[in-house]
Write a structure and sequence with these properties.
The structure is a single chain. By secondary structure, the chain is of the alpha+beta class. Helices cover 37% and strands 24% of the residues. The chain has ten helices and 17 strands. The strands form five sheets. Strands 1-3-2-10-9-8 form a six-stranded mixed beta sheet, sandwiched between helices. Strands 12-13-17-16-15 form a five-stranded antiparallel beta sheet, with no helix packed on it. A hairpin with a 5-residue loop joins strand 2 and strand 3. Helix 2 packs antiparallel against helix 4, helix 4 packs across helix 5 and helix 5 packs across helix 6. The protein starts with a helix and ends with a helix.
Length: 427
């Protein structure tokens, strides 16, 4: 049975549509910013980002709601630091906070009820051994009550762009309403990393607490962040503090920053176990430092684009070059793309080195910088060329006329003298 012309025409249209849809899908895959997945991790949730730009380099289920455990204490410590410019302010730990904390088997830093310590000591107690009593004391010292302080925590989370975070306590103990996500915790960690005091505390392996009214001798507390410990198998000298956490519901959790060769990454790994948490963190960060590097994206000798040129018969368009080289930090497979802002109605004459627009440079879809676009030669206008030709032609005509005049005079004078000589002979 033969297919009708109408059906054949319809099929051709359908095939053309399918072809262009495939082309469009391929282009989107090529141009879409690269985001590597971490599906092979034992940990169910993870995210790796660049600290300076916030670019997500790799992730695994980073937006799902999770229980943040002691990751909650990052926000508690940050707000306490911001509210207390004088870290030597003395604070007394209230007696009423201890029964509930002890009943929930909370991690404590070793302070006692009615003990007086400084804000600084309580910060180290909250961040290194993850002392819940320090968090509750700091919250009351700042806001008067834990409830009021929690409200500040949630407000700050919104300001940082968190969309899955809801704090209901200051320490992260079992509380089904206290939730966040790997992505949100990365945003909070980035704010913490920008606070010099926070990072000084979080990046400390051990700290000596001074004697107090209830402790006659100094005491040493140690960080739960084993990657800060040079004796630990997964120690890395690029690790920059942050926070660890654990509850049965949350599993082993870890947030850290890593800094090396002028570049910093933020890493969040959640829901893991003690056998894998630090191993996977070290493997991810080792891969990041090995895979990404500085490279030149734009040089000054390769034309970036062209622009239409008017009033010039010799060239229909002008070649434009970057006025200065542009470098970026990224993966070797990251694609370099551009957008241009060019001067309109470009007419010759155009001088060598003229600035005719700008180019914005993107690496893997993220903006790197903007550079001026300049010419590398002079483009002469038709008017100027024609005028020069006219002057040359006029000069040539003048010379030719002068030569002809000279020979005419010479030839005419010779004939006159000959006639005179002939007359003379006749006499």
């Amino acid at each position: 049975m033969k297919t009708s012309p109408h059906r054949r025409k319809h099929r051709r249209r359908a095939f053309r549509r399918l072809f262009w849809l495939l082309v469009l899908a391929t282009l989107l895959l090529l141009l879409w910013p690269r985001r590597v997945t971490l599906d092979g991790l034992n940990s169910p949730h993870a995210i790796l980002l660049r600290a300076d730009s916030g670019e997500v380099l790799a992730e695994k289920d980073a937006d799902s709601t999770i229980y943040p455990a002691s990751m909650t204490k990052m926000m508690t410590a940050l707000l306490a630091i911001e509210a207390n410019p004088d870290l030597d302010t003395p604070v007394t730990l209230p007696e009423e906070i201890f029964p509930a904390l002890q009943a929930q088997n909370a991690s404590l830093a070793g302070f006692q009820a009615e003990e007086t310590a400084t804000v600084r000591d309580l910060l180290y107690g909250a961040m290194l051994p993850s002392g819940a009593e320090c968090c509750e004391t700091l919250a009351r010292e700042v806001s008067g009550s834990e409830e009021a302080f929690v409200a500040r925590m949630n407000q700050r989370a919104k300001e940082l762009g968190c969309t899955s975070t809801s704090f209901t306590c200051v320490h992260g103990l079992y509380d089904y309403g206290n939730v966040s996500s790997a992505h949100d915790l990365a945003l909070i960690a980035k704010a913490c990393a920008e606070n010099e005091t926070y990072m000084q505390v979080a990046n400390t392996l051990s700290y000596t607490l001074p004697a107090t009214n209830l402790h006659q001798n100094e005491r040493t507390i140690t960080s739960t962040n084993l990657m800060l410990n040079p004796e630990y198998p997964y120690y890395r000298d690029y690790i920059r503090g942050m926070k660890t956490g654990f509850t049965t519901l949350a599993g082993r959790c870890y947030v850290t920053f890593a800094q090396k060769d002028g570049h910093t990454y933020g890493l969040v790994v959640l829901g893991s176990d003690l056998d894998n948490i630090y191993r996977e963190a070290s493997e991810i960060l080792d891969w990041a430092f090995a895979s990404f590097s500085d490279r030149e994206l734009v040089d000054t000798e390769t034309p970036l684009t062209t622009a239409p040129l008017k009033k010039c018969r010799s060239y229909e368009e002008v070649e434009l070059y970057a006025a200065a080289p542009v470098s970026g930090y990224g993966h070797a497979d990251d694609k370099v793309t551009f957008t241009y802002d060019l001067q309109e109605n470009i007419s010759a004459t155009v001088k060598d080195g003229a600035v005719l627009g700008t180019a914005t440079v993107y690496l893997d879809g993220y903006e790197v910088g903007t550079v001026d676009l300049v010419t590398h030669q002079e483009y002469v206008s038709d008017f100027r060329t024609d005028l020069q030709s006219t002057f040359l032609l006029m000069a040539a005509l003048i010379v030719l006329l002068a030569v002809l005049s000279f020979f005419t005079l010479v030839a005419g004078g010779g004939s006159l003298n000959l006639g005179r000589r002939r007359k003379a002979r006749r006499r």
